[in-house]
Amino acid sequence: MRTQYDVDIGMSLWMRGMLMAAALLLPLLASAGDAQQLLAASDSIRNPDKPFSLTLTLLEYRGGAKSDSSILNVYSKTDSRSGQYRSLVRFAGPPRDLNKLMLKAGNELFFHDPASGATTRISPQQRLLGQAANGDVVTVNFSRDYRASLVGQEAIVDGERNHRTTQKLLLNAVSPDVTYHRIELWIDAANQRPIKTKYYAESGRLLKTAYYRHYRPHLGVHRPTEMVIIDALDPNWVTIMRYSDYAWQDIPDAWLQPDYLPRFRPK
Questions:
Q1: Domains in the chain, please, with CATH?
Q2: Which of 30, 187, 199, 227 could form a disulfide with 180 if both were Cys (CB 3.0 to 4.6 A apart)?
Q3: What is the rounded distance in angstroms from the CA atom of residue 191 to the CA atom of residue 164?
Q4: Is the pTM of this model over 0.70?
Q5: Nearest CA to 213 among 197, 226, 222, 196?
Q6: Hey, is 218 helix, strand or coil?
């Protein structure tokens, strides 16, 4: 028969075990929180916090020679409910693509061709030009679509051949409809600037490596003005995404609705 002494001892041991478990768990929880905060800080450097527009120039190179190019006008604002960006992308060149539109609403992407008048759903993983996928040219907050874990500190060489001390994060997708299943991200330990990323398919296969470089002041923050993307299988296949003409922009909600795309006219 159990005495009150036995009960008290049992409770004491149980409480001690719970406290020890909590002590072991707290650093892990703190690390996860720190990783997500680092990711959010990196997002704020890539993306302005108010509605904005920019010009995105895509340049594809094969063996060092330019093989294709495209110019896009991007209009982005955050959704007050999800915190994720909604984006409208207008094709400004070459002439064959003029005034085609792409819309990101939530994690859904739509493509509108003014020649046919048709609006269709498209995949964010689908290639747009070179190594740039549809999902790469719309504004995205990684901290909304991925759960970050801190791998540790790592010294790397950046896209301008400078040595950097970085914090390496592993990002795992929290929903199946994002562009990449898994991302490795290196963030400058001194200022939270994104430096390098590796993108992986659901199978675990490395798709490409990218470098953020040429930081310049835009809309109150030093932001990368180029992203260099290198194919995982062919390092001579390179795509440069060049960001310019940043501006605060009033973006009507109507622009960000699929049924408005046939009526959109750039200002």
A1: 45-263 (2.50.20.10)
A2: 199
A3: 11
A4: yes
A5: 226
A6: strand
